[in-house]
Design goal:
The complex is a heterodimer. Chain A is mainly alpha-helical. Chain A has helices at residues 10-18, 25-43, 49-62, 73-94, 105-115, 125-141, 145-156, 161-168, 172-193. In chain A, helix 3 crosses helix 4. The radius of gyration of chain A is 20 Å and the shape is elongated. By secondary structure, chain B is mainly alpha-helical. Helices cover 72% and strands 0% of the residues of chain B. Chain B contains six helices and no strands. The chains are: A mainly alpha, B mainly alpha. The interface between A and B is large, with 48 and 33 residues.
Chain lengths: 198, 108
Amino acid sequence: MPTNSNTASDAEIIRRIIAGDVNAFELILKRYQGHVLSIVKKHIPEERIEETVHDSFVRAYQSLRSFRNSDSFKYWLSSIAVRTCYDFWRNRYRTREVPMSSLSEGQQNWLENMVSDRSGQSYKEREIKQEAKETLDWALGKLSAEDRMVVELVFLEGLSGREAAELLGWSVANVKVRSFRSRNKLRNLLSKALGKKN
Amino acid sequence: MKFLDKDLKKLEDGLKEAYARKEDIEVELDSKWETGVMRDIRRLGPVNGGSAFLFLSKFVWRFSTVACSVAVLLLIYAGFIGIDPIEQIADMYFSAPVELSVAHLIGE
Protein backbone atom coordinates (compact mmCIF):
# COMPACT_ATOMS: atom_id res chain seq x y z
CA MET A 1 0.00 0.00 0.00
CA PRO A 2 1.68 3.28 -1.07
CA THR A 3 2.11 5.91 1.64
CA ASN A 4 3.88 8.81 -0.09
CA SER A 5 1.29 9.16 -2.81
CA ASN A 6 1.06 12.87 -3.52
CA THR A 7 0.51 11.98 -7.15
CA ALA A 8 -2.09 9.29 -6.48
CA SER A 9 -5.45 9.82 -8.14
CA ASP A 10 -8.45 10.89 -6.07
CA ALA A 11 -10.08 7.52 -6.72
CA GLU A 12 -7.00 5.72 -5.39
CA ILE A 13 -6.89 7.83 -2.22
CA ILE A 14 -10.61 7.40 -1.62
CA ARG A 15 -10.27 3.65 -2.08
CA ARG A 16 -7.55 3.64 0.61
CA ILE A 17 -9.66 5.72 3.01
CA ILE A 18 -12.67 3.45 2.57
CA ALA A 19 -10.40 0.45 3.13
CA GLY A 20 -9.63 1.90 6.57
CA ASP A 21 -6.56 4.10 6.00
CA VAL A 22 -7.90 7.17 7.84
CA ASN A 23 -4.57 9.04 7.49
CA ALA A 24 -4.90 9.03 3.69
CA PHE A 25 -7.57 11.68 4.13
CA GLU A 26 -4.75 14.13 4.83
CA LEU A 27 -3.84 13.92 1.12
CA ILE A 28 -7.38 14.97 0.21
CA LEU A 29 -7.20 17.74 2.79
CA LYS A 30 -3.94 19.14 1.41
CA ARG A 31 -5.07 18.78 -2.19
CA TYR A 32 -8.44 20.48 -1.86
CA GLN A 33 -8.29 22.87 1.09
CA GLY A 34 -7.61 25.81 -1.25
CA HIS A 35 -10.56 24.89 -3.44
CA VAL A 36 -12.98 24.51 -0.52
CA LEU A 37 -11.67 27.71 1.04
CA SER A 38 -12.33 29.63 -2.19
CA ILE A 39 -15.97 28.47 -2.11
CA VAL A 40 -16.57 29.03 1.60
CA LYS A 41 -15.13 32.53 1.80
CA LYS A 42 -17.68 33.79 -0.71
CA HIS A 43 -20.61 32.64 1.43
CA ILE A 44 -19.57 32.86 5.08
CA PRO A 45 -18.56 35.77 7.36
CA GLU A 46 -14.79 36.14 7.59
CA GLU A 47 -14.54 35.10 11.23
CA ARG A 48 -16.28 31.77 10.58
CA ILE A 49 -14.50 30.73 7.37
CA GLU A 50 -11.87 28.42 8.90
CA GLU A 51 -14.47 26.65 11.01
CA THR A 52 -16.78 26.12 8.02
CA VAL A 53 -13.97 24.73 5.82
CA HIS A 54 -13.16 22.40 8.71
CA ASP A 55 -16.82 21.29 8.93
CA SER A 56 -16.94 20.78 5.15
CA PHE A 57 -14.02 18.32 5.26
CA VAL A 58 -15.42 16.43 8.24
CA ARG A 59 -18.74 16.17 6.44
CA ALA A 60 -17.00 15.03 3.25
CA TYR A 61 -15.24 12.29 5.22
CA GLN A 62 -18.49 11.14 6.78
CA SER A 63 -20.20 11.05 3.37
CA LEU A 64 -17.31 9.47 1.51
CA ARG A 65 -19.12 6.17 1.06
CA SER A 66 -21.82 7.94 -0.93
CA PHE A 67 -19.26 9.22 -3.45
CA ARG A 68 -19.45 7.44 -6.78
CA ASN A 69 -16.20 7.08 -8.67
CA SER A 70 -17.90 8.02 -11.91
CA ASP A 71 -18.36 11.59 -10.62
CA SER A 72 -15.71 14.29 -10.30
CA PHE A 73 -14.49 14.32 -6.71
CA LYS A 74 -13.76 18.05 -6.89
CA TYR A 75 -17.32 18.77 -7.94
CA TRP A 76 -18.71 16.43 -5.27
CA LEU A 77 -16.61 18.21 -2.64
CA SER A 78 -17.81 21.59 -3.96
CA SER A 79 -21.42 20.56 -3.42
CA ILE A 80 -20.59 19.49 0.15
CA ALA A 81 -18.91 22.85 0.80
CA VAL A 82 -21.91 24.77 -0.60
CA ARG A 83 -24.36 22.69 1.45
CA THR A 84 -22.28 23.24 4.58
CA CYS A 85 -22.49 27.00 3.94
CA TYR A 86 -26.25 26.70 3.45
CA ASP A 87 -26.55 24.79 6.74
CA PHE A 88 -24.48 27.47 8.44
CA TRP A 89 -27.02 30.11 7.43
CA ARG A 90 -30.01 27.91 8.21
CA ASN A 91 -28.64 27.36 11.68
CA ARG A 92 -27.81 31.03 12.09
CA TYR A 93 -31.31 32.13 11.10
CA ARG A 94 -32.84 29.48 13.34
CA THR A 95 -30.90 30.78 16.33
CA ARG A 96 -31.65 34.37 15.21
CA GLU A 97 -28.01 35.39 15.08
CA VAL A 98 -28.45 37.38 11.88
CA PRO A 99 -28.47 41.09 12.70
CA MET A 100 -31.64 42.84 11.55
CA SER A 101 -30.17 46.30 11.75
CA SER A 102 -31.12 49.07 9.37
CA LEU A 103 -28.69 50.70 6.98
CA SER A 104 -25.90 52.75 8.50
CA GLU A 105 -25.16 56.26 7.25
CA GLY A 106 -22.15 54.97 5.30
CA GLN A 107 -24.18 52.26 3.61
CA GLN A 108 -26.93 54.75 2.78
CA ASN A 109 -24.28 57.04 1.28
CA TRP A 110 -22.92 54.18 -0.79
CA LEU A 111 -26.37 53.49 -2.26
CA GLU A 112 -26.94 57.13 -3.09
CA ASN A 113 -23.49 57.64 -4.56
CA MET A 114 -23.75 54.56 -6.73
CA VAL A 115 -26.96 55.88 -8.22
CA SER A 116 -25.72 59.46 -8.67
CA ASP A 117 -22.46 58.39 -10.37
CA ARG A 118 -20.37 60.10 -7.72
CA SER A 119 -18.84 56.85 -6.58
CA GLY A 120 -15.43 57.51 -8.09
CA GLN A 121 -15.21 61.18 -7.21
CA SER A 122 -15.96 62.05 -3.64
CA TYR A 123 -15.31 58.71 -1.99
CA LYS A 124 -12.05 57.10 -1.21
CA GLU A 125 -11.85 53.72 -2.90
CA ARG A 126 -11.25 51.85 0.35
CA GLU A 127 -14.29 53.38 1.98
CA ILE A 128 -16.40 52.52 -1.03
CA LYS A 129 -15.29 48.90 -0.91
CA GLN A 130 -16.03 48.59 2.79
CA GLU A 131 -19.45 50.22 2.47
CA ALA A 132 -20.31 48.11 -0.57
CA LYS A 133 -19.39 44.99 1.39
CA GLU A 134 -21.46 46.09 4.36
CA THR A 135 -24.43 46.93 2.15
CA LEU A 136 -24.16 43.52 0.49
CA ASP A 137 -24.08 41.84 3.92
CA TRP A 138 -27.04 43.94 5.03
CA ALA A 139 -29.12 43.04 1.94
CA LEU A 140 -28.27 39.32 2.12
CA GLY A 141 -29.00 39.35 5.85
CA LYS A 142 -32.57 40.37 5.04
CA LEU A 143 -33.12 37.25 2.93
CA SER A 144 -33.87 33.73 4.14
CA ALA A 145 -31.06 31.14 4.08
CA GLU A 146 -32.55 29.58 0.91
CA ASP A 147 -32.95 32.91 -0.90
CA ARG A 148 -29.51 33.98 0.21
CA MET A 149 -27.82 30.92 -1.29
CA VAL A 150 -29.72 31.21 -4.56
CA VAL A 151 -28.96 34.94 -4.89
CA GLU A 152 -25.29 34.29 -4.21
CA LEU A 153 -24.93 31.35 -6.59
CA VAL A 154 -27.16 32.41 -9.47
CA PHE A 155 -27.25 36.18 -9.40
CA LEU A 156 -23.93 37.19 -7.84
CA GLU A 157 -21.77 34.29 -9.03
CA GLY A 158 -23.51 33.80 -12.36
CA LEU A 159 -24.08 30.04 -12.20
CA SER A 160 -26.89 28.53 -14.24
CA GLY A 161 -30.01 27.24 -12.51
CA ARG A 162 -28.91 23.68 -13.22
CA GLU A 163 -25.43 24.19 -11.74
CA ALA A 164 -26.84 25.84 -8.61
CA ALA A 165 -29.44 23.07 -8.28
CA GLU A 166 -26.75 20.38 -8.46
CA LEU A 167 -24.61 22.12 -5.86
CA LEU A 168 -27.49 22.63 -3.45
CA GLY A 169 -29.15 19.28 -4.12
CA TRP A 170 -32.45 20.96 -5.06
CA SER A 171 -34.60 20.60 -8.18
CA VAL A 172 -33.85 22.93 -11.11
CA ALA A 173 -37.45 24.22 -11.01
CA ASN A 174 -37.12 25.10 -7.32
CA VAL A 175 -33.90 27.02 -7.96
CA LYS A 176 -35.39 28.89 -10.93
CA VAL A 177 -38.54 29.93 -9.06
CA ARG A 178 -36.56 30.91 -5.97
CA SER A 179 -34.02 32.75 -8.07
CA PHE A 180 -36.71 34.91 -9.65
CA ARG A 181 -38.42 35.64 -6.33
CA SER A 182 -35.26 36.27 -4.35
CA ARG A 183 -33.90 38.69 -6.93
CA ASN A 184 -37.16 40.61 -6.74
CA LYS A 185 -36.86 40.67 -2.96
CA LEU A 186 -33.34 42.05 -3.29
CA ARG A 187 -34.49 44.74 -5.72
CA ASN A 188 -37.34 45.69 -3.38
CA LEU A 189 -34.92 45.97 -0.50
CA LEU A 190 -32.63 48.22 -2.49
CA SER A 191 -35.55 50.32 -3.74
CA LYS A 192 -36.85 50.81 -0.22
CA ALA A 193 -33.39 51.64 1.01
CA LEU A 194 -33.17 54.35 -1.62
CA GLY A 195 -36.53 55.67 -0.50
CA LYS A 196 -38.22 55.06 -3.81
CA LYS A 197 -41.38 53.15 -4.53
CA ASN A 198 -40.98 50.26 -6.88
CA MET B 1 -39.77 53.21 -13.66
CA LYS B 2 -37.10 53.15 -16.36
CA PHE B 3 -34.92 55.45 -14.30
CA LEU B 4 -35.44 53.24 -11.28
CA ASP B 5 -34.43 50.14 -13.22
CA LYS B 6 -31.24 51.88 -14.29
CA ASP B 7 -30.51 52.81 -10.66
CA LEU B 8 -31.14 49.28 -9.49
CA LYS B 9 -28.88 47.91 -12.19
CA LYS B 10 -26.06 50.14 -10.94
CA LEU B 11 -26.63 49.01 -7.38
CA GLU B 12 -26.74 45.37 -8.40
CA ASP B 13 -23.50 45.76 -10.34
CA GLY B 14 -21.94 47.38 -7.27
CA LEU B 15 -23.07 44.49 -5.11
CA LYS B 16 -21.71 41.99 -7.65
CA GLU B 17 -18.33 43.71 -7.48
CA ALA B 18 -18.44 43.62 -3.68
CA TYR B 19 -19.26 39.93 -3.82
CA ALA B 20 -16.43 39.22 -6.28
CA ARG B 21 -14.00 40.99 -3.94
CA LYS B 22 -14.74 38.38 -1.27
CA GLU B 23 -12.30 36.18 -3.18
CA ASP B 24 -9.53 38.55 -2.07
CA ILE B 25 -10.14 37.85 1.63
CA GLU B 26 -6.92 36.44 3.00
CA VAL B 27 -7.38 33.37 5.16
CA GLU B 28 -4.49 31.07 5.83
CA LEU B 29 -5.21 27.47 6.68
CA ASP B 30 -2.04 26.57 8.54
CA SER B 31 -0.67 23.25 9.81
CA LYS B 32 -2.46 23.80 13.13
CA TRP B 33 -5.75 23.95 11.29
CA GLU B 34 -4.88 20.77 9.33
CA THR B 35 -3.99 18.99 12.57
CA GLY B 36 -7.35 20.02 14.03
CA VAL B 37 -9.26 18.59 11.06
CA MET B 38 -7.27 15.35 11.06
CA ARG B 39 -7.80 14.98 14.82
CA ASP B 40 -11.57 15.12 14.28
CA ILE B 41 -11.31 12.70 11.34
CA ARG B 42 -9.31 10.19 13.43
CA ARG B 43 -11.78 10.56 16.26
CA LEU B 44 -14.55 9.52 13.85
CA GLY B 45 -12.62 6.35 13.01
CA PRO B 46 -12.58 4.40 9.75
CA VAL B 47 -15.31 5.18 7.23
CA ASN B 48 -16.53 1.59 7.36
CA GLY B 49 -16.21 1.29 11.13
CA GLY B 50 -19.68 2.50 12.10
CA SER B 51 -21.61 0.61 14.76
CA ALA B 52 -24.56 -1.61 13.92
CA PHE B 53 -26.84 0.98 15.50
CA LEU B 54 -25.57 3.73 13.17
CA PHE B 55 -25.93 1.37 10.22
CA LEU B 56 -29.53 0.56 11.15
CA SER B 57 -30.37 4.19 11.84
CA LYS B 58 -29.90 4.92 8.13
CA PHE B 59 -32.81 2.63 7.32
CA VAL B 60 -35.17 3.67 10.12
CA TRP B 61 -36.45 6.76 8.32
CA ARG B 62 -36.99 4.84 5.10
CA PHE B 63 -39.60 2.73 6.88
CA SER B 64 -41.17 5.55 8.88
CA THR B 65 -43.84 6.27 6.23
CA VAL B 66 -44.84 2.61 6.09
CA ALA B 67 -44.87 2.34 9.89
CA CYS B 68 -47.07 5.45 10.23
CA SER B 69 -49.44 4.22 7.51
CA VAL B 70 -49.79 0.84 9.26
CA ALA B 71 -50.50 2.58 12.60
CA VAL B 72 -53.21 4.76 11.01
CA LEU B 73 -54.77 1.76 9.26
CA LEU B 74 -54.81 -0.23 12.53
CA LEU B 75 -56.43 2.73 14.28
CA ILE B 76 -59.12 2.94 11.60
CA TYR B 77 -59.59 -0.82 11.75
CA ALA B 78 -59.87 -0.73 15.57
CA GLY B 79 -62.46 2.03 15.32
CA PHE B 80 -64.33 0.15 12.62
CA ILE B 81 -64.66 -3.13 14.55
CA GLY B 82 -65.58 -1.22 17.71
CA ILE B 83 -62.55 -1.66 19.96
CA ASP B 84 -62.73 0.87 22.77
CA PRO B 85 -59.25 1.41 24.30
CA ILE B 86 -60.70 2.51 27.67
CA GLU B 87 -62.83 -0.61 27.84
CA GLN B 88 -59.80 -2.76 26.98
CA ILE B 89 -57.70 -1.17 29.73
CA ALA B 90 -60.53 -1.61 32.24
CA ASP B 91 -60.78 -5.28 31.21
CA MET B 92 -57.05 -5.78 31.72
CA TYR B 93 -57.22 -4.09 35.10
CA PHE B 94 -60.00 -6.33 36.37
CA SER B 95 -58.47 -9.50 34.98
CA ALA B 96 -54.97 -8.67 36.36
CA PRO B 97 -55.19 -6.13 39.20
CA VAL B 98 -52.31 -3.68 39.65
CA GLU B 99 -51.25 -5.12 43.02
CA LEU B 100 -50.84 -8.51 41.44
CA SER B 101 -48.80 -7.10 38.52
CA VAL B 102 -46.51 -5.18 40.90
CA ALA B 103 -46.09 -8.29 43.03
CA HIS B 104 -45.09 -10.20 39.87
CA LEU B 105 -42.58 -7.53 38.98
CA ILE B 106 -40.83 -7.54 42.35
CA GLY B 107 -40.82 -11.29 42.31
CA GLU B 108 -43.09 -12.10 45.22
